[in-house]
Amino acid sequence: MAIIRPPFTGDATLDSWTNQITQALNMGLPLPLAQGQTGTSGSAGPTGNSAIYLYQRTASNTAPTKPTSVAYDYTDIENVTITANNGWLGSVPATGGKYLWITFRYISNLQDTITNANTWDTAVLLSEDGDDGTDGTNGTNGTNGTNGATGATGSPAPRFVSRRVYISSAAGTPSSPSATLTWSTLALSGITTGWSETAPTAIATSTTLVYFSDFLFVDTTGAGTTSAVTGGTPKESISFSGLVTFDSGDFELDGSAITSIDGGNISTDTIKTQQLDIDGNLRLSGTDSGFIAGRNSSSEYNTNGFYVARELRPTVLAVGSMVSNQEYQILSSGNSSFTSVGSSSNSAGTIFRYDGGSISGTGTIQQLGFEVSHTSIDTKIHGIIHTEDRGLHIINPTFFSGGTVSGGTSTLSSVTTSNAGDAGQSITVTAYGGGGAGGYGLANGYATGTYNSSGGSTVVEVWAGVPNAGGSTLLDTITAGGGAGGENAVLGYPWRGSVGAASEFGAGGSSGFPNSAGGASPNFSAGGGGAGGDQESFFDSSGGCGRGGSIGVQVARTIDTSSYVGTKQIHIKLTTLGAGGVSSGGSYAGGTGGSGAVTYSSILGGMTQYELEDIATIKSGTVGSYATAMYQGTVVFGSTYAGSTLLVASTANTVSQSTGGESFSGGAVGSLSGTWRAMCRGTAVANRFPTGNFARIS
């Protein structure tokens, strides 16, 4: 506690009083009250004067302003009142600042109001509080007390349960339902007829509406067995004024755009959408479930499109027509016992594998199968079809070999259509015309300024989609003219023709020696070789030799297919293949020019295309098989021959001479059927007939 120091003014009376007051404050004694001085004995002397003191605390060491209004009342010495303005009090204040000020004046009346500020003595500093001391050291924590005893179990707490029930109504809003809740099981009972905890199916076009009502069961005791309540006023659950549609815009969830349906089990008839993105498996559970495009049914084999599905074959069969180890579906059981021959049930729709056991009766079945794909292009049917009775059929496939993951260049050398892959890539297509024929040679004389036959033009089309099919687009038509024929019979030494011009595919035909023909071009679009001439002698005039033919014209186009990405495949259709020029005239023929060709560069480029007839089979006599046979005549490589004119070769085969010509012996001519292509060559001489490999093509 701060010690109050009394002021010293030099006024003996004032200093005496302030000293008494200071001592009283420091000792905690009551402050001395104002009292009059004792008058001298005698007759009525004058009223004595007493001092009245006022106090005020400030935060700064600046004397406060004197009061201008002080009301006091000493009429009741036990209850003295002093009221002053300007912050002054009749007693020492406990707060307000560290500086305590005092002022006083003398009064002669027991009760009055003093309004003259000048009557008050100048405020003097009575005391000043000392500075706060430093904080003491914290004391140590006391020992924790022991836990109290466990209190008694309280009463059960109140409990409540809310439940919702539904009803379909075409007669307007129904009355509120009632129900009873069993607290031990939380099961509802006694629900008003027609109401159910399961929501009925809402139909958009129906006049029947779905309503719901909510029950609130409350057990304030917490110990009840059941509670019975009446539900809230029924409200319409779903109301369709028309079908629900989303024209534009998105729902949003946490700031992200979504179009979401809350539910993991959605059953509907038809869904139309632009894209279906599936994270898991797409399961087609129906017997005839599948994918179809461009066609109206699975059996429209002559319609461009495809069908991918497991399906029931259309023919209805009797139980007596089943074949062992084949799969069937029961159409009708009749009085037949399908369970005795491998079926798990006699019910219609059951699929089973017939184990070959004995079965009879009136039951009917259908075979199952599937189609992987199917389309119609180039006037042919293409597809993969499987039936239980006939097995797997691959119809008119086209095979590709080679190529790389980066693509490459493919070459077409026959009138055909090739699938260059999905649109989106840039495809470069180059057409090459046929090479010109080599110039002819003469035994005598010259034909300078004349030229042999030119090569033919190559025409190729680029399509987005299947060529000439509905919805397809012709992107470009490219025509490349043929190369010019070589000059005929020109003066030359040593009377040998010149070689044909080389193309990108390789060298042209070889030059003809004197008095001989020029060589045919071995490569696409290259020129044929010029024929040789005749060297003069003493009895013979000289003859001119031919020049080699020119290469076919080359036309390249780069085609952007990005406009059709995701919707079309690009097809290259070679409609016209430029033939190589064929020599005519002269004593010695010029070489034939190389035929034209088409190349295309794409992801599927660099692959070699094969048709089914290009692939041999190990079965004898079937299409694609080979046979070593004899032919009674000249065999031209690549030409076709009737099987009836061929004799399968053996060590016993001989040729006998008879009137009218030679004939085969040791085997039967005509043992082969169909049409065969010669994979060999040869010319019949006397009793010797060409023997070689033939491939059956039809």
Verbal overview:
There is one protein chain. The chain is mostly beta strands and 698 residues long. It has 5 domains: 12-34 and 49-128, no CATH class; 159-235, no CATH class; 290-395, no CATH class; 404-611, no CATH class; 616-696, no CATH class. 2% of the residues lie in helices and 33% in strands. The protein has 1 helix and 38 strands. Strands 15, 16, 17, 18, 19, 20 and 21 form a 7-stranded antiparallel β-sheet that branches. Strands 33-37-38-32-34 form a 5-stranded antiparallel β-sheet, with no helix packed on it. The protein starts with 11 loop residues before the first helix and ends with a strand. The model is unreliable at 34-39, 42-46 and 656-662 (pLDDT under 50).
Distance between the termini: 129 Å
Beta content: 25-35%
Number of domains: 5
**Number of distinct beta strands:** 38
* Poorly predicted tracts of residues: 34-39, 42-46, 656-662
Give the radius of gyration.
Answer: 60 Å
| Biggest β-sheet strands, sense, barrel | 7 strands, antiparallel
Task: Give the overall shape.
Answer: elongated
Which structural class is indicated by helix and strand composition? mainly beta
Portion of residues within helices: under 10%
Number of helices: 1
Mean pLDDT: 81
